[in-house]
Specification:
Subcellular location: Nucleus
InterPro entries: MeTrfase_RsmB-F_NOP2_cat (IPR049560), MeTrfase_RsmB-F_NOP2_dom (IPR001678), RCMT (IPR023267), RCMT_NCL1 (IPR023270), RsmB/NOL1/NOP2-like_CS (IPR018314), SAM-dependent_MTases_sf (IPR029063)
GO cellular component, one term: cytoplasm
Strand content: 15-25%
Family: Belongs to the class I-like SAM-binding methyltransferase superfamily. RsmB/NOP family.
Structural class: alpha+beta
CATH topology of the largest domain: Rossmann fold
Number of strands: 18
Keywords: Methyltransferase, Nucleus, RNA-binding, S-adenosyl-L-methionine, Transferase, tRNA processing, tRNA-binding
Number of helices: 14
Number of domains: 2
Radius of gyration: 23 Å
Length: 454
């Protein structure tokens, strides 16, 4: 909703001729782009568009340790769901795909729940439990990546673009889901130091000794030495900056701001972050790449390029079995690349100056992109999302060198002295090198904005 004020004279503190102007939920370029891609079947496009123009329903998940969370869940199910079920259109339910029935949706916008006296007791419950940290108001689809990452208590976990921290909170909860104190940790990173402080605030209610916040450009996340060994992560979440065009039900400014140039500009940044994440992943480890965008230039094009660069040493794994009851669609194996002039570009024509990584690769049928997961708003009254689960088969790159060997060579070039003859102290802190591995030559470092896109 955009706010506009007209100039005029009035008393101090008094607004004169002010009015609210609704943002028009239409964008001709967005509609042309997605109709041309054929992502949504022609007979479904109007309902898809209509759903995108509506406000999101209220969703939340219950946080904390298992026993406490079950008590809060039982309280909501017994005291509030029966009341809401008797009111037209509310339709409260637990997500069938969220573990232990701890994720819920009420099929009404939060603004209506606030205003309608019939929902006053539920609204009060949500406010109180949110304030004390028992409930996290989180969009349904954004709960998916931490679930398919499948974090265990002994895992070393990196969240590369963590702020504002709702997914990070899920990762910390998963780490502590067992009965014993976890031996792993969650390292949450964000490139903006102010948003990094937000992470501390978001997760501090867990009082976890296994959580650390760092502040680095994810494209150049430094190598870390722990106990005299280079640290490799068991699990990595790459929820990268994106155009957020699948969040237009919540962020209505997307309707007026959407243009194809945003995706073209973010593509190399997203690819750099993913490549760095795969370098930091250990053999047998799992990385989840996700965006709140439906644009294949930010999704399948990025995944396809990363798979080719790792030359068969990384594969997509199918994790739909972890999400029972969630309607998902397979990843795309064909898409069109638009230029800023909204004209389709030819892969074989070099005159347009577009990155080759934007286009469908020749061997796309061998990459397994159909195992990527797409979630569309009109299927289950949600936002849109893209999720891909990647597994590292081996620490080998295209040139045959193992990653550890390359890192050792890079360390020598950077003149970082490591005295291997002296044993590491028992309380040794992680060490980072000043200059990590650089991105591939054809993809130069992309300067990030200090505010994450929606």
């Amino acid at each position: 909703m955009g706010r506009q004020f007209r100039k005029g004279k009035g008393k101090l503190g008094q607004r004169v001729d002010s009015h609210w102007k609704e943002i028009v939920r239409e964008n001709a370029q967005w509609e042309l782009f997605y109709k041309t891609q054929g992502i949504i079947p022609e007979n479904e496009f109007e309902i898809f568009k209509k759903t995108c123009q509506e406000n999101l329903p209220l969703t939340f998940r219950i946080t904390g340790n298992k026993n406490h969370a079950k008590e809060i869940s039982k309280l909501f199910i017994n005291n509030h769901i029966p009341k809401l079920s008797n009111i037209d259109n509310a339709k409260p339910f637990a997500f069938p795909w969220y573990p232990n029935n701890l994720g819920f949706q009420i099929d009404l916008p939060k603004s209506e729940i606030k205003k309608n006296p019939n929902y006053s007791s539920t609204q009060q419950f949500l406010v109180i439990e949110t304030e004390v940290g028992n409930i996290s108001r989180q969009e349904a689809v954004s709960m998916i990546p931490p679930i398919v990452l499948d974090v265990k208590s002994n895992h070393k976990v990196l969240d590369m673009c963590a702020a504002p921290g709702s997914k990070t909170s899920q990762l910390v909860e998963s780490l502590h889901s067992g009965n014993e104190q976890p031996t792993g940790f969650v390292m949450a990173n964000d490139s903006d130091y102010r948003r990094s402080h937000m992470l501390v605030h978001q997760v501090k209610r867990f009082n976890s000794p296994n959580f650390i916040v760092v502040n680095h450009d994810a494209q150049l996340f430094p190598k870390i030495k722990l106990n005299n060994e280079w640290l490799k992560f068991d699990r990595i979440l790459c929820d990268v900056p994106c155009t957020g065009d699948a969040t237009m039900r919540k962020n209505v400014t997307v309707w007026k701001d959407w243009k194809i140039g945003n995706s073209l500009g973010l593509h190399p940044l997203q690819l750099n972050i993913l490549l760095r994440g795969l370098q930091l992943l250990k053999k047998g480890g799992r990385l989840v790449y996700s965006t709140c965008s439906m644009n294949p230039l930010e999704n399948e094009a990025v995944i396809a390029t990363a798979l080719k660069k790792f030359n068969g040493q990384v594969k997509i794994i199918d994790c739909k079995n972890l999400l029972p009851g969630l309607i998902t669609h397979p990843g795309l194996t064909n898409w069109e690349v638009f230029g800023k002039d909204m004209k389709i570009k030819d892969k074989l024509d070099d005159s347009h100056g577009m990155l080759k990584s934007l286009f469908v690769p020749d061997d796309v049928e061998n990459l397994g992109l159909e195992n990527c997961m797409r979630v569309y708003p009109h299927d289950q009254n949600t936002g849109g999302f893209f999720i891909t689960v990647l597994e590292k088969i081996d620490d080998v790159k295209e040139n045959g060198k193992r990653v550890n060997e390359e890192e050792e060579e890079a360390t020598k070039k950077q003149k970082v002295e490591v005295d291997a003859t002296q044993p590491a102290p028992a309380t040794e802190q992680p060490q980072t090198t000043e200059q990590p591995q650089q991105p591939p030559k054809e993809l130069k470092h992309v300067k990030q904005n200090k505010t994450k896109l929606p």
